[in-house]
Specification:
The chain is mainly beta. Helix content is 0%, strand content 46%. It has a four-stranded antiparallel β-sheet with strand order 1-2-3-4, with no helix packed on it.
């Protein structure tokens, strides 16, 4: 079975959901948030205080 490209590493909320998803090839972290699961979902790169992408080391 192939390795999944994106993995969820954090999940918070039931109605207003916040997730952190990691790209397993690049290590880049993404923040995904949705309000009420029906009114829209947004996804963006998670950045550090200097504005650089948060990167998780890949094993």
């Amino acid at each position: 079975m192939a390795k999944e490209r994106f993995v969820e590493v954090y999940n918070q909320g039931i109605v207003n959901v916040t997730k952190i998803i990691v790209d397993t090839e690049t290590g880049v972290n993404y923040l995904m948030a949705s309000h009420n699961k029906a009114n829209g979902t947004g996804m963006t790169i998670l950045v550090d205080p200097d504005g650089k992408p948060v990167v998780t080391p890949i094993k």
